[in-house]
Write a structure and sequence with these properties.
single chain; alpha/beta; Rossmann fold; N-(1-d-carboxylethyl)-l-norvaline Dehydrogenase, domain 2; about 50% helix
Length: about 325
């Protein structure tokens, strides 16, 4: 059995995909009303309304019951991942693989998701599932390709086989660091692209932000010990392009609203779901400073989101930066 921990839109979509791949599936939710809705009506009416779930997908609010599985897919919001799974520390067999599906960097510790999980589960094999994925598209069964990365490549390939079917294709790899950097930083860059669109700057600007943003996330990837080629793959460029070009992206649409004149408080007050880039921005800036690297676009987004900076002034600051070698 495969269990998904976290029944937001992404966790629910993963449950659908895992079931379509032929697995017995359990889905853990914190909210009792979500558990009841999934078990009684076979629909996550709060986070993925209108999508019918296979009746064989069983929801539970009992974390230990959900953890009695061959593999756990971890999909809570990134800032809550560590606390969500903490009750399982010392109770989970060391052979159970933990597949992290959350994307972000911890604000308090500047830890990647793998570092947060390994702190409490040092014996369990840890993997990263990342890539260009919108939950609604996966739930609908539209063709999707992702990265499934782990230091144990053989086990990563076994897990990829268990999750795969013709419309969901996990490609295995062993760059755990790189797979996480792409997934975390692309959310911040998507907010930048949304702001630019909201200001009416056009497609040239978005292409520039994606290209220069790719340089920034690659810089961070290398500083953390990841590999440059990973940033050219599904969990890097693939996820970046998707998230920076569609209003399905919670982060892009948040930036679009900011660029159109709404305040962050107004935007967040209208939403149930989490835009991870809001939290990752400040953590990424702090991590970049710690590693002594420059991430000007990410820093600009952080200034707007978390430091009260004026959008127009931040944009002018970016446009007036000294020119440099593109490969630097």
């Amino acid at each position: 059995m495969i269990s998904i921990i976290g029944a937001g839109s992404w966790g629910t979509a993963l449950a659908i995909a895992a079931r379509r791949a032929g697995n017995d599936v359990a889905l853990w939710a914190y909210e009792a009303e979500i558990v009841a809705a999934i078990n009684d009506t076979h629909e996550n009416t709060l986070y993925l309304p209108g999508v019918a779930l296979d009746p064989a997908i069983r929801a539970t609010a009992d974390l230990e019951e959900a953890a009695a599985a061959d593999a756990l897919l971890l999909a809570p919001p990134a800032q809550h991942l560590r606390a969500t799974i903490a009750p399982l520390a010392g109770r989970l067999p060391a052979t159970v693989p933990l597949v992290i599906c959350s994307k972000g960097i911890e604000q308090e510790t500047l830890s990647l998701m793998s570092e947060a999980v390994e702190a409490s589960f040092p014996e369990n094999p840890v993997f990263i599932l990342s890539g260009p994925t919108f939950a609604a598209d996966v739930a609908e069964g539209l063709p999707t390709a992702v990265t499934l990365a782990g230091s144990d490549l053989a086990t990563a390939q076994v897990l990829a086989d268990r999750l795969s079917f013709d419309r969901f294709r996990p490609y295995s790899g062993d760059d755990v660091i790189g797979a996480q950097i792409g997934g975390a930083i692309k959310n911040v860059l998507a907010i930048a692209c949304g702001i630019a669109e909201g200001r009416g700057f056009g497609d040239n600007t978005r292409a520039a932000l994606i290209s220069r943003g790719l340089a920034e996330l690659t810089r961070l990837c290398l500083a953390k010990g990841g590999r440059r080629e990973t940033m050219m793959g599904l969990s890097g460029l693939g996820d970046l392009v998707l998230t920076c070009t569609s209003t399905q992206s919670r982060n892009y649409s948040l930036g679009l609203a900011l660029g159109g004149g709404q305040t962050l408080a107004e935007i967040l007050g209208q939403r149930k779901s989490v835009a991870e880039g809001v939290f990752t921005a400040s953590a990424a800036v702090a991590l970049a400073e710690k590693l002594d690297i420059e991430m000007p676009i990410v820093s600009a987004v952080d200034a707007v989101l978390n430091r009260g900076a004026d959008i127009n002034e931040v944009i002018e600051g970016l446009l007036s930066r000294p020119l440099r070698d593109e490969t630097d």
